From TrEMBL:
This is SDR family NAD(P)-dependent oxidoreductase. Keywords: Oxidoreductase. One of its GO terms (molecular function) is oxidoreductase activity. It comes from the Bacteria. It comes from Nocardioides iriomotensis. SUPFAM superfamilies: NAD(P)-binding Rossmann-fold domains.
Amino acid sequence: MTWTPADLPSFDGRTVVVTGGNSGIGRHTAAALARAGAEVTIACRNVTAAEEAVAAMAADGATGVQVAELDLADLASVRGFAERWHGPLDVLVNNAGVMTPPRYRQTVDGFELQFGTNHLGHVALTAGLLPHLLAAEQPRVTTVSSIAHWRGRPDVLDGNQGGTYRPEHAYGNTKLANLLFAFELQRRAALVGSNLVSNAAHPGVSATGLVTSPQGLGAIPGVRPLAPAVLRLLFQSAAAGANPTLYAVAEAGPASYTGPQRLRESRGPVGPARMSRYARDEALAGKLWDLSLDLTGSRFDWG
């Protein structure tokens, strides 16, 4: 379909949280929603970088963006963010993530870094913010996955623990977990009669800071100085990569999955994305849901 951020409806009076909104896909998502009238909070681990991003957004006409500290790799930080939030929340965009650190690393709470950050942190955040989402008239949760979810397997239930750490497989598992969580959240919302919409999107292959992050591939010598030029040459822009997320936030239906449509979903106009058979496995989703709540100590209170 032909859809661009210019097609966004008015978001006047609506509140939005975007995790990891200081760079890449998250930054362009936050800026576009702010231009549409939303009051946007970018929730970031690096507050200084986030404040610099907000200043740049404002200079480019995207006002109404503010910063809040959130470290998804620390469940105490996640709980603190949710406890500090006041008032209804219309949209939560679970966007932040870390990609393929070359060596095994753990979160503050002892989980493999990618599983703990990309999946468990967002589960705990969504659970903590659920009362505020349910206080909104038309609440939405959009979770950002990846074409890498095709690498995910049922051993996602192992939480990427174990003796053999494979960065790409571990990352794929977390992106599969994002989809399983998004769809299970929608199923549970429907079961209790809630009007909350949960869906997912993926950006294709975009030139973002995810590759150069020191928590991920940027830990490999030489990647950080060389990657930006290579990414800009080979891949679509981060702004284009944000379009599927923006469409999912604004228009896509419940339990939908949106992504680019060309070159094996690596770029192009937005539309329905394909997903693996594991992403459609409701039994696997239910098991992961229960496991995730146990690991994080979270509870979804539907009121």
